Amino acid sequence: xxxxxxxxxxxxxxxxxxxxxxxxxxxxxxxxxxxxxxxxxxxxxxxxxxxxxxx
Length: 55
Description:
This protein has a domain at 26-54. It is built from two helices and no strands. The protein has helices at 2-15, 19-54.
C-alpha cells in the first residue's frame, strides 16, 4: 500500500505543467466554455425541438 501512495504522489507532481502554460490553457478552456454556453443558451431550445421531432 505504501508503494501505491508514493507512486501516485510522484505521478501527480510529474504531471503538473508550468504555471504559465497552465494559466494559458485554463484561460483558453474558460473562453471555450463561455462561448459554448452562449451558443447553448441561444440555440439549445431549437436543437432540442429538432431532436424531439426526429423521434
